[in-house]
Please model this.
Amino acid sequence: MQVTIIGTGYVGLVSGICFSEFGFEVTCVDLDADKIDALNSGVLPIYEPGLDRLMEQNRQRLTFTTDFDSAVAQADVVFVAVGTPSRRGDGEADLQYVHAAAKQIARSIKPETVIVLKSTVVVGTNAEVQRIIEAERPGVPFSLASNPEFLREGSAIEDFMRPDRVVVGVRDKRAESVLQQIYRPLYLRDAPIVVTTPENAELIKYAANAFLAMKITFINEVADLCEQTGGNVQEVAKAIGLDNRIGGKFLHAGPGFGGSCFPKDTRAFAATGRKYGAAQNLIESVVSVNEARKKAMAQKILAELGDTPRGKTVGILGLAFKPNTDDMREAPSLAVIPVLEAAGVDVKAHDPQAMGEAKSFLPNTQFCDSAEDAITDVDVAVIMTEWNVYRALDMQTVKKLMRGDVVIDLRNIYPVDAVEDAGLTYVSVGRSRTK
Ligand code: UDX
Model:
């Protein structure tokens, strides 16, 4: 079966390469010729652990091209994995790229092609795309499905190969059988395939992400209460998570969620609620609370610099929105560092993967080649992203390298006493500070 993927971003590229690993012939299409040239020379435009090796292993089944029409004309299945960014202002998902792709796909599909919306799209988009294709190519038989992704950056291959479930929204049996065939290799791992309507598939994607974002925001607010009452949010999270109705995952308090999905999807879900008169009040709060939290982290750091932050230096460990990715989209570091610099603080920073991406967002920041460099002679050191490389810092060395003695750990990587024993002041999230 010939598979074509429209869009070579995090979702399109991971999906295309994983489908080629299943043994399918896969053509990945992008309008960005530089991206396609890089892929054809074996260079990935994104950092995703293991993806380069998987691409290399399946190179003979992979084609990268900007030739949209021929890639569609030869396909049995066309996946749409183009971006659906937040629209300025109301946060609604911007569907222009999906609509444009649908129109162009319609012009080239052969009869009986199955078109699959993998992009995260608001409820009703599948029906809209159905209308666009029918209008563009009257009479041509095709099937349209929705197949949202649940890939986490940094573990996308694992999430693709061992999903908790595959969601398929279809209107006809042909689309259902083709998608069952495409995902058959996952049967071996009995990954349940949920077959439902396109509308349900669209709602499931947003509801899942909105719920996860809400769960994180919940524990972040509990962390604030713990700080005021001498509580320990890690112990509270562990104990509530032992209730299998709650579950222990996504209960790690931190600086607020970032990334290309949760911020965008919570805003879009809230906008959908407003649009249909079914307000998603909880998610409206998640959006505003999370935005405020990321800003509050800058104040948390400024509070440790005394009355005159101007001229002080802060070392930031971690810039990406989470570990194991180079993605800077809506990263907490981008809500924090400009505020520090506006207050006259000099900022040094390190990140194992994201400094290339970060440079364009942080023109005044000094980028360092190692964690040690980033905390040398700083008044305050901040752990912003929980990369493994920051999990085994020798606190005696940290104390020697720093000018000040305050370590702010926004990811609660260390036990409180491990830092205190080195004579440092340890400020973390949802746990009492040491001095
Ligand atoms: C998310 C969803 O998990 C995934 O299913 C969906 O397809 C895409 O969006 P992703 O954004 O890549 O994946 O990363 P994720 O691991 O979910 O983390 C999102 C944000 O939440 C990050 O900023 C992370 O630091 C934060 N987070 C996550 C917490 O603050 N605490 C947690 O316990 C978990």
